[in-house]
């Protein structure tokens, strides 16, 4: 193996999760690699631990026994017991007193995670080489071969770490593994096209067609996202559009109609593979508590089965392929 190849395989990226045996994120059985860091701040994000690039401490307060073992273990003093404001003793019948100082950057040493007797602490983020990620991916090669599956890179936002993603996808293609990425599309076109050389399928989000509303819901405008989508399709790359459905935020008939009219010209491209609808779910809410983050959505914005059927039929009325992805 050449020195250059060795150098590529030892490149590192910050990953926050690996999910095996997925059947929702591309064809067949897939392994999902989640990259840490995202330029968007979607109100409904189900992976808040993927937003920041830095290491983070997830704290499950209901498991904590206030043993204090984590306090001397942490080299940067993130863990602490606050002084009681009223000067009185606390009892174990009350909520755990242990706190995490979020103003201090975790260094990812995992010493607190190691000493915690109740697994109340976990560190999010791991720097892995391409070799290490490939080893994980290849463990399930038999499933890919039998199901037509492969690997999907997501996040966070995978294009925020473009060199690593490109080299990883290149190695996957060399091994004959189908490749896909999930992306918001909010990236420099050059980075997107670099990754596209080794990507069999883009799972590409359209969160709202109106740029002002998109900014309110995600923190960024959507002109770059729509322009990049258009470029990918016109250049012949395989794209499936994904539309998160959030009741009252982006599911109105007017919003959907404008989105579908934008997509209609792509019907004549064989590489445009239709639309996946991703209904709102609340699976990530507990992670916000563990990170001391506020979850902006207070109401249940999920859909009933008959409502999803109606939305699916509405889109089919535009003669576009559509599928509802129900987790």
Keywords:
globular; single chain; two-stranded antiparallel sheet; alpha/beta
The proportion of residues forming helix, as a percent range, comes to 25-40%
The parts where pLDDT drops under 50 for at least 5 residues are none
Q: Which whole number gives the mean pLDDT?
A: 93
* Major beta sheet summary: 9 strands, mixed
Q: Which shape, going by the Cα principal axes?
A: globular
Q: Count of DSSP E strands?
A: 13
Strand portion:
15-25%
Number of helices: 12
H/E series, N to C? HEEEHEEHEEHHEHEHEHHEHEHHE
Cα gyration radius (Å):
22 Å
Strand order of the largest sheet: 7-1-2-8-9-10-11-12-13
Q: What is the terminal-to-terminal distance?
A: 42 Å
Category by helix and strand content: alpha/beta
What does this protein look like?
The protein has a nine-stranded mixed beta sheet with strand order 7-1-2-8-9-10-11-12-13. It has a two-stranded antiparallel ribbon with strand order 3-6. A two-stranded antiparallel ribbon has the order 4-5. α6 (162-174) runs parallel beside α7. The chain has helices at 3-9, 70-73, 111-115, 130-138, 141-147, 162-174, 189-196, 211-218, 223-234, 253-263, 285-290, 305-316; strands at 12-22, 30-35, 56-59, 79-80, 99-100, 121-124, 126-129, 150-155, 178-183, 201-205, 239-245, 272-279, 322-324. The mean pLDDT is 93. By secondary structure, it is α/β, with parallel strands linked by helices. α6 links the parallel β8 (150-155) and β9.
């Amino acid at each position: 193996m050449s020195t250059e190849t060795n150098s590529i395989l030892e490149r590192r990226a910050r990953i926050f999760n690996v999910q095996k045996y997925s059947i929702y994120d591309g064809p067949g059985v897939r392994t999902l690699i989640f990259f840490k860091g995202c330029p968007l701040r979607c109100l409904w994000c189900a992976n808040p631990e993927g937003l920041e690039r830095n290491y983070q401490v997830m704290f499950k307060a209901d498991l904590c026994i206030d043993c204090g073992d984590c306090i001397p273990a942490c080299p940067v003093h993130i863990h602490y017991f606050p002084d009681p404001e009223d000067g009185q003793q606390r009892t174990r019948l009350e909520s755990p007193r242990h706190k995490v100082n979020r103003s201090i950057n975790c260094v990812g040493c995992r010493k607190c995670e190691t000493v915690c007797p109740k697994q109340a602490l976990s560190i999010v983020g791991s720097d892995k080489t391409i070799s290490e990620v490939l080893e994980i991916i290849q463990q399930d090669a038999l499933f890919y071969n039998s199901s037509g599956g492969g690997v999907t890179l997501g996040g966070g936002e995978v294009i925020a770490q473009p060199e690593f993603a490109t080299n990883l996808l290149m190695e996957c293609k060399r091994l004959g593994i189908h490749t896909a990425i999930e992306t918001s599309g909010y990236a420099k076109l050059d980075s997107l096209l670099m990754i596209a050389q080794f990507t069999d399928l883009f799972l590409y989000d359209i969160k709202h067609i109106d740029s002002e509303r998109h900014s309110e819901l995600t923190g960024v405008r959507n002109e770059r996202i729509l322009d990049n989508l258009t470029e990918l399709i016109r250049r012949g790359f395989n794209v499936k559009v994904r539309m998160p459905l959030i009741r009252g935020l982006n599911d109105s008939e007017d919003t959907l109609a404008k989105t579908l009219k934008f997509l209609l010209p792509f019907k004549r491209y064989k590489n445009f593979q239709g639309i996946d609808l991703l209904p709102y779910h609340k699976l990530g809410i507990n992670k916000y508590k563990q990170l001391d983050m506020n979850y902006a959505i207070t109401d249940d914005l999920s859909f009933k089965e008959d409502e999803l059927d109606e939305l699916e039929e509405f889109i089919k009325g535009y003669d576009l392929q559509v599928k509802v992805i129900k987790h």
